[in-house]
Structure formats: C-alpha cells, structure tokens
Design brief:
This protein is of the alpha+beta class. 20% of the residues lie in helices and 33% in strands. The chain has 3 domains: 206 residues, P-loop containing nucleotide triphosphate hydrolases (Rossmann fold); 88 residues, Elongation Factor Tu (Ef-tu), domain 3; 104 residues, Elongation Factor Tu (Ef-tu), domain 3 (Beta Barrel). The radius of gyration is 23 Å and the shape is globular.
Length: 433
C-alpha cells in the first residue's frame, strides 16, 4: 500500500485521468481575430461544462457591452488586460468532458511574437485546431501555425473555417480554402488533416450540425474530437522508462523493497521482461510492476508506475530502463531544432542546463546550423542570430550522456528544455533530430 500511495502522491490529478486513455489534449491556433476564444467558449457552453455563476457573469458583461449575442470568448479570456486589448496573451489550459472523452485545451495566442507560447501549448497535444477566417482564407499566420504543428509532430490537424455566416455559408468559398490549405500542407509532415466549416459565434457545426450548410456531409467539431483515434499516437514499440525516483521505504513491512518510479515514455513492460539500465548497460529482469491501484500485468505510455527488478543493479534518477532489442541513442552530442524563449539571445558556445526526461546536465552550444524563416519555411543559413520566438537548428554537447530517440519517433525521449544556469529561466525547447 505504501508503494501505491507514494506513487499516487507523485501523480497530479490530471495524470490520474490521463492513464485511462480517454483523454485528448488539443491546442487551438489562429490569427488574432479568428475566434479561438469564442470557439472554446462555445465548446464549453454547448457541452454544459461551465458553472452557473460563470454563465451569469458572461451574460452580465455581454449586456453591459451592448452586444446582442452571448460573448462566449469571455470564458477563456480571463485576464482583464487581455480582454481590454481584445487578444489572448498567455497559454490558458481548459478542462472539460463529455460522456465519451475528457479534454484538455491549450488556448494559445496568434501573434508572431508569441510563437514560444504556441510551442509550449502544443508540445503535449495530440491534435491541433487551426482556425481560418472564411473572409481572409489562408494567411501567413495560418502557414506559421501549421508549420509549428508539423515541427512538433502533432499527428492530427482539424482546420476549422470559421465565420462562415459572414460569407453567406458559401460552399465554394469553403472549397477554395480547403484547396489552398491542402496545397500548402503538402510541404509539411501532417498525417491526418480534416476540414470543418463552422460559425463559432452561432454554434454551427461546433457541437450540433448546421442547418445553414446542408452541403457539408462531415461530422461537427465536437464529435470529431470525441472520435479521433489517438491510440497509435504513442510509441508502443520502443520500451522506455525514465526513472524519476528510487523508492526505498526502509520499514519492516517492505524491508528489502527497491522500486524505480517513473512515467513510461514508450513501449510495453511486463513482469519477466529482460531489461537494460541506460547509460550503464547493466541488465536485469522485471520482477513486478505496481500502479496506483495495485499490481499490473503490463505498463505502457503514458502510465506512471513503480518497477522492481530481480537483480540489485545500480539505477538512479535520470537513468532509463529499456529493452535490449531496441536500444535508444546514448550520446553527449545532440543535433536539434529549438524554439528560443528568452529575450536574451542564444549565445554561441554559451553554457546552459539541459533537462531531458528525468536527467539534468550542463551543456554547451557547439554550433548554430541555421535559422528558419517560419513564414516562408526557408532556411536562413546566413543569419545565425537566434532570439526570442526564433526557430533554428543547433548542435550541443552535454556533460553527461543523454538517453534519447529522435523526436519524430518519440516525443517524450526526443524533447528537452534549456535552462539559464544563473537565472533558472527556461530559455528554449528542443526537438532532437
């Protein structure tokens, strides 16, 4: 029981929900006035996921402003400063559920100067909703947001063509936008793209089918979110368990207990499996696997578990338990794409702290390969100055070996953050190539 309670203590409320695999994390992105906040407000409102006092407050503010339609964007634009500017500045996380699935929404800002916020919000997403204003069509920011979604390997994209009420519910306008976006997206690596014509303000094709667009034969947005298949999004082939902590109760009941706690980052582990501790290369066999509710017959991503081994081998925080048949890369030299978060520019040969899975190490930037113009997607090899919101390719060397996979193979073991060793501020997020 002690093991299970210790493990439960380490898991957040959200993590506990996450284990059930009926949770979808998605992010929204669009230009400043494309209606992201209204869309999320509509999803919360129509799925009955708001409290009465919230609804009363929205009705009151809508009335004070003299607006005719209930302003659902007020549900997500919570900060007064943001509302006064009419924009969403930071990443706001919202939680709601339907009988079919639980959802975590990351509402991210549309401005180019908030690229870092979108990267933060999208880094754990299964799906991205890209909003397009039906009047404006595919614009520069649409391309930029789609590129970031592709860079972050978000496997599912739903392109919501919003404000269809302002183009007279035109099927031909919707088809024009679908053609333009499809042509652009052919240059990206996005395996699953769906298009839905909506009016977030009036609720058309958000939760219920639109009577104004009988020509659209697909599903409304919420049904699409409820039914999109995400079971194959995690890597269930390469077994990876980064060790977060070693549990040693040192009491009479569990006198010799030594368990390795962490969240499975890939593959499937079962009692009896032969495993390897990286980076030491020491081998053993899984003796037992414990979850919050008792012993488990198997563990897979993204479950948080405690594993015990048959042999007394040296394993500590920052190590990774893997299987011998598909080992990860163990290296100090890392090629990566990074998004720079800090106002202070990247320093060539600068020293930073790298946090990768559960391992922390000092590192140095050995080279900047190129910067990407995220509007044209071209490499700017002559411009190696990487400042806030820039995306570029770098080579870094860590003081200790990192147990990693390419980001496109495993988003957990293929990502990292860089931290300023003096201020402890997160300065970049990286994706290993």
């Amino acid at each position: 029981m002690l093991i299970h309670s210790r493990l439960s203590d380490k898991m957040s409320h959200t993590d506990q929900h996450y284990l059930s695999m009926d949770l979808l994390r998605f992010t929204t992105a669009g230009s400043v006035d494309d209606g992201k906040s209204t869309l999320i407000g509509r999803l919360l409102y129509d799925s009955k996921a708001i409290f009465e006092d919230q609804l009363e407050a929205i009705e009151r503010v809508t009335e004070q402003r003299g607006e005719e339609v209930l302003n659902l964007s007020l549900l997500t634009d919570g900060l007064r400063a943001e509302r006064e500017q009419g924009i969403t500045i930071d990443v706001a996380y919202r939680y709601f559920a339907t009988p079919r699935r639980k959802f975590i929404v990351a509402d991210t800002p549309g401005h180019i100067q908030y690229t870092r916020n979108m990267v933060t919000g999208a880094s754990t997403a299964n799906l991205a909703i890209i909003l397009i204003d039906a009047r404006k069509g595919v614009i520069e920011q649409t391309c930029r947001h789609s590129f970031i979604a592709s860079l972050l390997r978000i496997p599912h994209i739903i392109v919501c063509v919003n404000k269809m009420d302002l183009v007279d519910w035109s099927e031909s306008r919707f088809n024009e936008i679908v053609t333009a976006y499809t042509e652009f997206a052919s240059r990206l690596e996005i395996p699953d793209i769906k298009f839905i014509p909506i009016s977030a303000l009036h609720g058309d094709n958000v939760v219920d089918r639109s009577v104004h667009m009988p020509w659209y034969l697909g599903s409304p947005l919420l049904y699409t979110l409820e039914t999109v298949y995400i079971g194959s999004d995690s890597n269930h082939i390469d077994a990876r368990l980064p060790v977060q902590t070693v549990i040693r109760p040192n009491n009479d009941e569990h006198h010799d207990f030594r368990g390795f706690a962490g969240r499975v980052a890939g593959g499937v582990f079962k009692p009896g499996d032969a495993v390897v501790a990286q980076p030491s290369g020491l081998t053993s066999t899984i003796k037992s696997i414990h979850g919050p509710d008792g012993d488990l017959a198997e563990a897979f991503a993204p479950m948080s578990v405690v594993v015990t081994l048959t042999d007394e081998i040296d394993v500590s925080r920052g190590d990774t338990i893997t299987k011998a048949n598909n080992p990860p890369h163990v290296t100090q030299d890392i090629e990566a794409m990074i998004c720079w978060f800090s106002e202070k520019k990247l320093q060539p040969n600068g020293k930073y702290i790298i946090r990768h899975t559960t391992r922390e190490s000092k590192c140095v930037i050995k080279a900047v390969r190129y910067k990407i113009n995220i509007n044209t997607l071209h490499k700017a090899e002559g411009d190696l100055d990487i400042g806030m919101n820039d995306i570029g390719r770098i080579l870094l060397r860590s003081a200790t070996p990192l147990i990693n996979d390419p980001y496109q193979r495993n988003r957990s073991t293929g990502s990292f953050i860089l931290v300023d060793e003096f201020t402890n501020a997160t300065v970049a997020a990286g994706m290993i190539l």
